[in-house]
Model the fold of this input.
Amino acid sequence: MSICRACSGETARGQCRGSTRCCQTFHLLLERDPCATIFTRYLPARNLSEAGGAWLRYYQKWEGLMLDRVDPSKVDIVPERKRYAPPAAVVDKSVSFPWFGSTLPTLLITRATHTVLVTGGETDVCVLSTVLGAVDFGFRVIVVYDAVCSSSDAAHDAMQLFYSQRLSQQVATASTEEILDSWVVQR
Done:
């Protein structure tokens, strides 16, 4: 099972570091078994009245990112990956954490998923939230280290160390090549 944030490589903070490489390597994983892929798509608040808590401060700073102001294509799955959905599933989320208020946990349990491959961006925000939630739900988690990216070089590098060292008992890291060499498509 592969989970990818449906990121174009662009964020509110700028271009994701390594987004071109990340997109290329993710595409190899996606092509191997699109049916096993789940895109998580972040849908921002429609307007300030829908934003709550710390998200209100976020949207006050980044008002142009709210749904009533942004081009809808900017929050959709990028065209080169959209053609895979379906068969890939799409799970919408309104916060960084895809496990809260979404269908992701039920979808993974229904599919009898044991292992979750995490790819996408940003390494230090949505990827981190996905990884920690997957660990807490009891899944085997593998961060595909050459298929994640961030707009912050320092945060990306710190998170790569965090995944491989601090979380080494709960999270594995592997390259796309290592994953593809060991991946057996099951039907």
Observations:
- Residues 30 and 39 are 10 Å apart (CA to CA).
- The first strand starts at residue 2 and ends at 5.
